[in-house]
């Protein structure tokens, strides 16, 4: 992988335009976009700005074809059995909400989640608990924040209708053993949904190989456009799901008192869709596939190892998650005792235009349970360099001396 | 304390920059919380401290360490300085309003509202150098015999004594304002021409004779002299025709002007003026308080009718 060549694809990484050179380490929140994705989005507005599917003219046919190609590319990216298993959503949150509201959960059904879920995979279940009386059970992590398969198994009883887990944690980068989780859940007769918002950008996903039931992820964390996400679902499951949002483009026909829904995925994609977003998403998937996930993982690990080695012995610094960077993907999350995490983040930004995330990263429940005010999260991606990692480490060292 | 200092500084910067305006709003929120004895939990202090430390640390680690350690005391120092400068500014504003200068009446130091010091400019007397330069505090009417000087509304309680010069720009700027005051508040006005700039001392004698001939016409003459082009004052033909036009008996007047007795009286009156220790024109005494230079109208009015003269 030629990083210098790759970085040329990202306009925002170039100096100039009134901004200093940036070191972007907030990729878990949102990745940067390469020129290819931007061009795909632009192409829709410049060349084929029309409705997909519903109109008969040439522009509509072009949009329909492009969107279909994007869906096919994403299905291939996930190794889905068929392209109809790919439902376009706005983001991961919408995908999870769709399943939560459409699965037909009943009173006393149990949904298993972990103790460090993003609010996207916590609040929908809390809401369903209030709305229909489901029971939300928490699987505690081990002391080092890795997934505790034994604790999971202990909670896996016949009442568990769905296991909904963050595949890779945005808090500390820990990835759960999805294959084993799915296997055990299926043996128990439970469905599995994976929140892959932090996985899809960094690892090869094989939904067929894993036998995953639902997988939700967002475009904006994997070079794609904001406001575009994907819910993968096994076709036979999607067929059974009630639509979450209804309206235009979801039905074959309607009368004044009834309607006949289209098959998946259309029945879940109500209203005019974000066609430019779909095309951008298709381009993002193509770009990531060309770079290759082996190279991506290798680069992220190299960066994580470098940063971890540099900072792990800083006085008062506490790493979140396991010490071994190989278990934390592209994330280094830490706090310095007695120092507000926002202060560190702001100082890094002011000192060297290093952009990191600080606070509780939408995992308030975990921070509150552990009585930690927040952390600084460095989230890496394949376009980050060793020089940037070194700059971060030296800047943090200076901050450590001052604070 | 930091919030208050930041609010003022960012508020001023916010006039020119939207991002600073947003920060000023956050600072205001913080200030309001502090004032109402609630904790400032908006993170504003923390944010600004981090930004400042981030700025300093790349220049001096030691400086950043010092700043981090003594941030609160330093904020207090700035707060005290802010309070002191605010009080000073309010004082300056008040003095500018009441005296035309931020530094006080007749004080010529720099004033941001009057950077050129225009309200203190005078046409100086052509005098020899003095060891002790004249001071505003020396100006007085005590011991000055004003009898025989041209006076209007003699019986009025409030009294203005105006030492000016027909030919001087600053006097010419001030005279209409004083006349406006006299007309509006019916105060007494004593006027004396003191020719400091040009050799127009004969004008003093003209004024003396004109006043002796007809007091009402004298004031019309004065108004005309200050309203006309300066060049006309050097023109004998214009002077004669103007005096004639105002209804003076120019033959008698010219005889009076040429009379040695008039010369003597004029010298005597100018000697009385010197006793006031004035050092330039215009110098206006309002009920004994001296105002040197062309002040704004409000300054004269405030001395006569108080701070809220415009309500009366």
Succession of helices and strands of chain A: HEHHEHEHEHEHEHEEHEEHHEEHEEHEH
Instruction: Classify the secondary structure makeup of chain B into a structural class.
Output: alpha+beta
At the third CATH level, what is the topology name of the largest domain in chain B?
Answer: Glutaredoxin
Overall 3D shape of chain B: elongated
How large is the radius of gyration of chain A? 22 Å
Features:
heterodimer; A: 403 residues; alpha/beta; Aspartate Aminotransferase, domain 1; Aspartate Aminotransferase, domain 2; 2 domains; seven-stranded mixed β-sheet; four-stranded antiparallel β-sheet; 14 helices; 15 strands; 40% helix; globular; B: 312 residues; alpha+beta; Glutaredoxin; five-stranded mixed β-sheet; two-stranded antiparallel ribbon; 12 helices; 8% strand; elongated
Write the layout of secondary structure elements.
The complex is a heterodimer of chains A (403) and B (312).
Chain A: H1 3-8, E1 23-24, H2 35-47, H3 58-78, E2 86-89, H4 92-102, E3 110-114, H5 123-132, E4 135-139, H6 149-155, E5 160-166, H7 178-188, E6 191-195, H8 207-210, E7 214-218, E8 229-233, H9 235-240, E9 251-254, E10 259-261, H10 275-291, H11 293-311, E11 317-319, E12 331-336, H12 341-352, E13 354-355, E14 357-359, H13 364-370, E15 375-379, H14 386-402
Chain B: H1 2-13, H2 18-35, H3 44-57, H4 61-69, H5 71-99, E1 123-124, E2 151-152, E3 159-164, H6 169-185, E4 188-193, H7 202-213, H8 215-227, H9 236-245, H10 250-258, H11 260-274, E5 280-281, E6 283-286, E7 289-292, H12 297-305
Parallel strand pairs in B: 3-4
Antiparallel strand pairs in B: 1-5, 2-4, 3-6, 6-7
Helix pairs in contact in B: 1-2, 3-4, 6-12, 7-8, 7-10, 7-11
């Amino acid at each position: 992988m030629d990083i210098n060549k790759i970085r040329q694809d990202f306009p925002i990484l170039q100096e100039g335009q009134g901004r200093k050179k940036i070191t972007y380490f907030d990729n878990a929140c949102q990745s940067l976009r390469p020129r290819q994705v931007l061009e795909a989005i632009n192409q829709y507005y410049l060349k084929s700005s029309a409705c997909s599917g519903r109109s008969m003219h040439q522009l509509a046919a072009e949009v329909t074809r492009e969107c279909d190609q994007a869906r096919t590319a994403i299905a291939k990216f996930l190794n889905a059995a068929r392209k109809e298993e790919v439902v376009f959503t706005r983001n991961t949150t919408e995908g999870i909400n769709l399943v939560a509201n459409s699965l037909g959960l009943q009173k006393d059904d149990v949904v298993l989640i972990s103790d460090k879920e993003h609010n996207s995979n916590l609040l929908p279940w809390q809401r369903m608990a209030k709305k229909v009386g489901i029971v939300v059970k928490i699987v505690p992590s081990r002391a080092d924040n890795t997934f505790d398969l034994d604790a999971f198994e202990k909670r896996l009883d016949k009442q568990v209708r769905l296991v909904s887990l963050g595949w890779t944690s945005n808090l500390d980068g820990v990835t759960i053993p999805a294959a084993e989780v799915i296997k055990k859940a299926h043996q128990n007769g439970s469905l599995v949904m994976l929140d892959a918002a932090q996985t899809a950008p960094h690892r090869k996903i094989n939904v067929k190989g894993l036998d995953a039931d639902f997988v939700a992820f967002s475009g904006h964390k994997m070079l794609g456009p904001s406001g575009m996400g994907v819910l993968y679902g096994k076709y036979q499951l999607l067929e059974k799901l009630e639509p979450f949002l209804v309206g235009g483009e979801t039905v074959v026909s309607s009368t004044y008192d009834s309607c006949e829904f289209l098959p998946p995925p259309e029945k879940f994609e109500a209203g005019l869709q974000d066609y430019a977003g779909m095309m951008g998403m298709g381009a993002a998937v193509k770009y990531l596939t060309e770079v290759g996930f082996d190279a991506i993982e290798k680069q992220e690990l190299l960066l994580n190892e470098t940063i971890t080695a540099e900072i792990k012995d800083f006085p008062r610094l506490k790493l979140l998650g396991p010490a071994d960077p190989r278990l934390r993907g592209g994330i280094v999350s830490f706090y310095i005792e007695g120092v507000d995490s926002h202060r560190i983040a702001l100082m890094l930004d002011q000192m060297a235009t290093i952009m990191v995330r600080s606070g509780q990263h939408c995992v308030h429940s975990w921070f509150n349970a552990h009585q930690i005010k927040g952390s600084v999260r460095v989230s890496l991606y394949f376009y980050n360099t060793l020089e940037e990692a070194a700059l971060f480490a030296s800047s943090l060292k200076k901050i450590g001396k001052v604070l | 304390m930091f919030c208050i200092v930041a609010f003022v500084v960012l508020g001023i910067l916010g006039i020119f920059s939207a991002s600073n305006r947003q920060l000023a709003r956050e600072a205001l929120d913080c200030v309001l919380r502090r004032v109402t004895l609630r904790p400032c939990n908006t993170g504003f202090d923390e944010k600004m401290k981090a930004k400042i430390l981030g700025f300093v640390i790349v220049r001096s680690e030691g400086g950043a360490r010092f700043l981090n350690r003594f941030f609160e005391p330093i904020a207090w120092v700035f707060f005290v300085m802010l309070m002191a400068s605010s009080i000073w500014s309010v004082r300056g504003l008040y003095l500018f309003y009441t005296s035309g200068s931020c530094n006080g009446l007749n004080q010529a130091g720099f004033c941001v509202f009057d950077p050129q010091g225009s309200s203190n400019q005078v046409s100086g007397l052509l005098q020899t150098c003095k060891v002790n330069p004249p001071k505003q505090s020396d100006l007085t009417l005590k011991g000055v015999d004003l009898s025989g000087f041209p006076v209007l509304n003699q019986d009025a309680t409030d009294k203005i004594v105006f030492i000016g010069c027909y030919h001087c720009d600053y006097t010419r700027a001030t005279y209409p304002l004083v006349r406006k005051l006299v007309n509006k508040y019916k105060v007494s006005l004593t006027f004396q021409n003191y020719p400091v700039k040009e050799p127009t001392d004969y004008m003093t004698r003209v004024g003396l004779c004109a006043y002796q001939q007809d007091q009402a016409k004298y004031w019309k003459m004065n108004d005309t002299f200050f309203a006309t082009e300066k060049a006309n004052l050097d023109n004998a033909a214009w002077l004669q025709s103007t005096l004639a036009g105002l209804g003076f008996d120019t033959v008698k007047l010219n005889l009076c002007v040429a009379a040695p007795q008039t010369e003597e009286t004029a010298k005597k009156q100018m000697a009385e003026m010197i006793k006031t220790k004035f050092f330039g024109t215009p110098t206006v005494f309002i009920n004994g308080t001296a105002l040197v230079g062309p002040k704004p109208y409000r300054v004269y009015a405030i001395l006569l009718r108080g701070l809220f003269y415009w309500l009366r």
